Amino acid sequence: MDQKEELSVAEKLKKELILEPQNSGIEMGDEEISAAMAFCADYKAFLDAAKTEREAVNYTIKLLEENGYRRFDPSQCYKPGDRVYVNNRGKSILFAAVGRRPLDEGTRIIASHIDSPRIDLKPRPLYEEAQLAMFKTHYYGGIRKYQWVAMPLALHGIMVRGDGSSLEVSIGESPEDPVFCINDLLPHLSKSQNQRKLHEGIKGEELNVLVGAMPFKDDKVSEKVKLNIMRLLNEKYGIVEKDFLSAELMLVPAHKAQDVGFDRSMIGAYGHDDRVCAYTSLMASLDTPEPEYTWINILADKEEVGSDGNTGLSSTFLEYFVMDLAGGQGVSGREALRNSVCLSADVSAAFDPTFPEVNEKKNCAYLSYGACVMKYSGHGGKSSTSDASAELMGQIRRLFDNNNIQWQIAELGKVDHGGGGTVAKFIANLGVDVVDIGVPVLSMHAPFEVVSKLDVYSAYRAFALFLQETAKA
Question: What is the pTM of this model?
């Protein structure tokens, strides 16, 4: 229709009243698309450097200290512009910038998690069978076990020796390093295995990791391959087998983050869930050093296993930090929390045209359509979730729409097809208004997940805008 032609009554009403289909990222300008591509180059470097929560914390502290952040001292009174961080046992971290307004007027909180599904070693992992040295494992989080076999794996973590000294482990990431793998059954002999249900195609106790095959040259001892592996580990790292008892060791995919597609519009990597939200919120925080309202950024551990433990968000480490910070200003920590707003930053499932039946198309996230806002997550009848209020949804909607943030609304699949949770409910339990927002992901929880660069950049812009917001609606 010619732009000069007058719209019909119906067309005018439709334009005024009807919600148009969600817009894709192709409506971004060339300058913004170029910015997204450049932003994601650094994001890929972060993914490669931070494959575990400990590595993510170390990466974050380095950046924070380079930008003037110092360890939080609860005995001090902090003034506007001060920047602090709390390292929670090396596996989660909280950092903040003190705003110009009193803390009891509320804060801006972003909470994401830096743990991802993986394969952990058991406390006594090393054994020998049929002249092969193997590790026994216990998987962590919601993995599809069959996806982790017959692929290169890297060993990461920490070991505490008998004398109390510690050893950081990262084997399989450098080109000169060996890698490890979990064997699969060859198709010629898999007739019985093929009869199993998909989730039992590989069982938990079958996730045994191949680590060696060379025997120690001595006929006087048994388990010669195991002995040879321990000899090598002792010579290089000074450890004995008992040191595995005081270790946190895990296997993660050995591959690097890579561009996906002829157009390089996507990133394939391990750990997008949820380090994509951790990184984008970290960068947004560093770009907002002197806010109107105090902001707090949390990169938490243990989300993939229920957020329990003293490094997860079911613990008190956020609450106690707010109480200490508010106490230094002589104001109420409870009021600070009650007047705060939080973005629970976690990923959502992107629509996959290969498996359309699990999504309700009008209420799911699509790749390259921008950051996705979820009013609630949970299971079935909204079980185990925090359901954001209409008022908060209105606030976020106005904020994003008025500032040209590319965003979309999302649910995690059809109502009775499963579901999942985030950290939102734990922060809501402190009296904070919370809504979920994140990045759509294809193949979530797989060793190789896929995200859109446009969505990553949209999330960064959304987080930065939220931290810079000057008033709570």
Answer: 0.94
Residues facing 345 on adjacent strands: 437
Q: Residue 15: pLDDT above 90? A: no
Within-domain flag for 4 = no
- Mean local confidence (pLDDT), 8-28: 76
| The pLDDT of residue 23 is above 90 | no
Instruction: Tell me the residue length of the chain.
Output: 473
Q: What tokens does 144 get? A: 């599809």
Structural domain including 245 reads: 118-253
Task: Give domain status of residue 262, yes or no.
Answer: no
CB contact at 8 A, 320 and 298: no
pLDDT in tens, 355-382: 999 999 999 999 999 999 999 988 888 8
Q: How many CB atoms lie within 10 A of CB 356?
A: 10
Note whether 336 and 456 are same-domain residues: yes
Question: What are the angstrom distances between the C-alpha of 12 and each of 3, 8, 90, 234, 387?
Answer: 13, 6, 58, 77, 34
DSSP 223-253: -HHHHHHHHHHHHHH---GGGGGGEEEEEEE
User: Which amino acid, 262?
Assistant: F
Whether 155 contacts 253, CB under 8 Å: no
Domain end, chosen from 223, 253, 283, is at: 253
Q: Are residues 187 and 108 in the same domain?
A: no
